[in-house]
Amino acid sequence: MATIYYDKDADLGRLAGRKVAVIGYGSQGHAHALNLRDSGVDVRVGLYPDSKSWAKAEAAGLTVKSVDQAAAEADIIMMVIPDQTQARVYKASIEANLAPGKTLMFAHGFNIRFGQIVPPAGVDVSMIAPKAPGHRVREVYQDGQGTPALVAVYQDASGHALEDALAYGAGIGSGRAGLLLTTFAEETETDLFGEQAVLCGGVSELVKAAFTTLVDAGYQPQVAYFECMHELKLIVDLFYRGGLSYMRYSVSDTAEHGDYYSGQKVITDATREAMRGILADIQSGAYAEEWLDENEKGRPWFNAARERERNQPIEQVGRELRSMMPWLDPVVVED
C-alpha cells in the first residue's frame, strides 16, 4: 500500500523561526514562495541580479535577494529552477553556502537522480514535487484546497528530514490533498516517462496525427481541430473526476464502443515496445545525458523542433479559432 501523508501528519510549526529560500520564481517558484508566505513561513526568493522576475516577486510583496545571499542566510533551500541550469547554479552559488544542519530541497529529482548535484554529507536532501503546474498550485491553494505532491528523502543527516519535508508540503498546501511517499529515482523516472509517453509527447503526436489524417482525407481543418484537439479537454476533465469508467459512463454508447473497438488499433504492441524503450533510456541515464549535452551545444535540435512545431497546421488553425472564443482566455505564445 502507498504511504500518503496529510496535514494531520505534518507540523507546520517545524518551519517556525527558520528561513526558507526559494531559488527561482517561475511556474513552481512563484507558487511555492507565495503559498509559504501566506502560510506564515519566513521566505525569500533567490534570483540572479538582472532577472526579469525580480520586479514581479517584489511586486507580490516578497523579499528578493541574490541566489548567493538567499542561500547563505536560509536554513532550507528549495531549488525550482530548470533542470538544465540547476547544477551550474548549485556550483556557483549554493554549494559553498551549505553548512551542516541545513536542508537542500528539490521539486523534481532530476539532478540528484542523474548525479549532476552531489550534496555534502551533513545536510538533509529532500523533495516536494507537486503534481500540477505552478499556477494551479497557487490557484488551488488560494481556493482553500491543495495540489497532491510527492515527498521523498534522499539524505537524512538530521534524523528528521521527512518531518521537515512534510511541513514544507503543508506550507504550500499539498498536505490538504495528500503527500505520497516515494524516492528521488521513482519520481524522476516516472515523471520523465509520463511527460514523454503520455502527457506531452504522446498526446501531442496523437492529436497531430489524427488532425492530419482527417485533413488529408479532405475534411475541413476547422472541423478536424474541434474533433481532435478542442474536445480533448472535455474528455480529460472526465478522466480527472472519475477515471476511465466515468468517461465511458458520460459519453454515448457509440463513443464507448469506439473506445473498445479502435483504441488498441492505435496503441499497438509496437507502441508498447516503444514505451518500454523510452523508459529504458530514462532509467539508464541515456535520455538525461542527451538532454544535458543538447544544452551544452546551445540546443540546436531543440530550438529547431520548437520552431517547427509552432508552425504546424493544427497550431495555425487553432490560433484562429481560439481568437473567436474570448471566453476561453486564449493565449498566443510569442518567441
Describe what you observe in this structure:
- By secondary structure, this protein is α/β, with parallel strands linked by helices.
- Helices cover 56% and strands 13% of the residues.
- It has 16 helices and 9 strands.
- The protein has helices spanning 27-38, 53-59, 67-73, 83-94, 110-113, 134-142, 161-171, 184-199, 201-216, 221-230, 232-250, 253-266, 269-284, 286-296, 300-310, 313-323; strands at 4-5, 19-23, 42-47, 63-66, 76-79, 103-106, 124-130, 149-155, 179-181.
- The chain has a 9-stranded mixed β-sheet with strand order 1-9-8-7-6-5-2-3-4.
- Strand 8, helix 7 (161-171) and strand 9 form a beta-alpha-beta unit.
- Helix 3 packs across helix 4 (83-94).
- It is globular.
- The N and C termini lie far apart (46 Å).
- The mean pLDDT is 97.
Task: Based on the model shown, name its key terms.
alpha/beta; 335 residues; 9 strands; 16 helices
Q: Short summary of the structure?
A:
The protein is 56% helix and 13% strand. The chain has 16 helices and nine strands.
Distance between the termini: 46 Å
- The tally of helices reads 16
What structural category arises from helix and sheet content?
alpha/beta
Rg measurement, Å: 22 Å
The spatial strand order of the largest sheet comes to 1-9-8-7-6-5-2-3-4
Mean pLDDT reading: 97
Strand content: 5-15%
Which runs of at least 5 residues are low in confidence (pLDDT < 50)? none
Helical residue percent band: 55-70%
For the biggest sheet, the summary is:
9 strands, mixed
Question: Which outline best applies?
Answer: globular
Number of strands: 9
Encode the helix/strand succession as letters: EEHEHEHEHEHEHEHEHHHHHHHHH
